[in-house]
């Protein structure tokens, strides 16, 4: 049988730096575990704009649709701030998500014991924390029409539209309930049904999907602002959180700080299953291109490495190998390996991106 294909889009800023460590790990799995992938590399974001004048070339889009999974680094940077909206690096990412129809974004927030002290919360609030935020990714205010800056009377008005159809809510709710069944059978849905029509529909549809097909899963509803508060007050009350595109963006960054650093957080974006049952999928670290530390060897590669672990688990049915990789990360952290972003106030000497890759490979 042919090897599964992995399309690597390293992107901009620290994207190529952290992806370099992942490439070494992919090679390791090929050599030591006989787990071989056909790896292809292509451009996205500012890197694609520099080469082709567009943040995502049509050929790259076609390759992404063909690949068994896409691994993405990060896009964007100050160099591209003045570009027209349609040419911005982020548009490349949004196009990938949209055309691959990756409607369900899985963002785990898991606290490694060795980093519990480093959380923005008290260690006892986060020790053992393991929550999964499921963020709707292809609709909502990021895509709703009308959008734009319009003339209105003698001034301009900036407009975005929050819009959800029943089917969009239905499918992301299902993915959250399916996930909950593989975890602890508990889902909390977040919206703002008190002030938003889309929130009223969201709550109604999630409840209906639950009552009809997932009555065994414990479901609660929460306003997203309260959810943000609860996340920093008592995060362990949650298991799976399902929410819309914008609230999910904010809540998952908030959850990020519970676990220590943005540099630790992987994500998966899944679409509908293909004919072979494998969902279209893209894996990427939650963090951005981090222009402030680009090119200095300071970036923490763990978020990107754990994203590859998620690919092993969700796209390739190698949960055991994913666990192997996650255990290696856990071990090096327990042994005290720290990139600069993981240094506590007591200080110490951080290791570089490549050195972190080295110790994880050794483990
Ligand atoms: P974007 O708009 O692309 O999401 P952002 O403004 O949210 O970008 P990030 O690029 O994610 O910002 O960076 C936020 C902060 O976190 C920066 O100070 C950055 O240096 C730090 N950071 C992000 N990723 C990492 C990483 N992998 N290792 C170390 N520090 C990181
Ligand atoms: Mg961001």
UniProtKB/TrEMBL annotation:
Primary localization class, coarse: cytoplasm
Keyword Magnesium annotated: yes
BP term (GO), one: L-leucine biosynthetic process
Gene Ontology CC terms: cytosol
SMART domains given in the database record: Iso_dh
EC top class, as a word: oxidoreductase
Entry-linked PROSITE patterns: IDH_IMDH
Biological pathway: Amino-acid biosynthesis; L-leucine biosynthesis; L-leucine from 3-methyl-2-oxobutanoate: step 3/4
Reaction catalyzed: (2R,3S)-3-isopropylmalate + NAD(+) = 4-methyl-2-oxopentanoate + CO2 + NADH
SUPFAM superfamilies in alphabetical order: Isocitrate/Isopropylmalate dehydrogenase-like (SSF53659)
Positions of substrate binding: 97, 107, 135, 225
Protein location: Cytoplasm
Coiled-coil positions: none
Binding residue positions for Mg(2+): 225, 249, 253
Swiss-Prot/TrEMBL cofactor(s): Mg(2+); Mn(2+)
Residues engaged in binding NAD(+): 77-90, 288-300
Site feature: Important for catalysis: 142, 192
Gene3D superfamilies registered for this protein in UniProt: Isopropylmalate Dehydrogenase
Keywords assigned: Amino-acid biosynthesis, Branched-chain amino acid biosynthesis, Cytoplasm, Leucine biosynthesis, Magnesium, Manganese, Metal-binding, NAD, Oxidoreductase
Function: Catalyzes the oxidation of 3-carboxy-2-hydroxy-4-methylpentanoate (3-isopropylmalate) to 3-carboxy-4-methyl-2-oxopentanoate. The product decarboxylates to 4-methyl-2 oxopentanoate.
Family: Belongs to the isocitrate and isopropylmalate dehydrogenases family. LeuB type 1 subfamily.
NCBIfam families, alphabetized: leuB
Protein name from the UniProt record: 3-isopropylmalate dehydrogenase
Gene: leuB
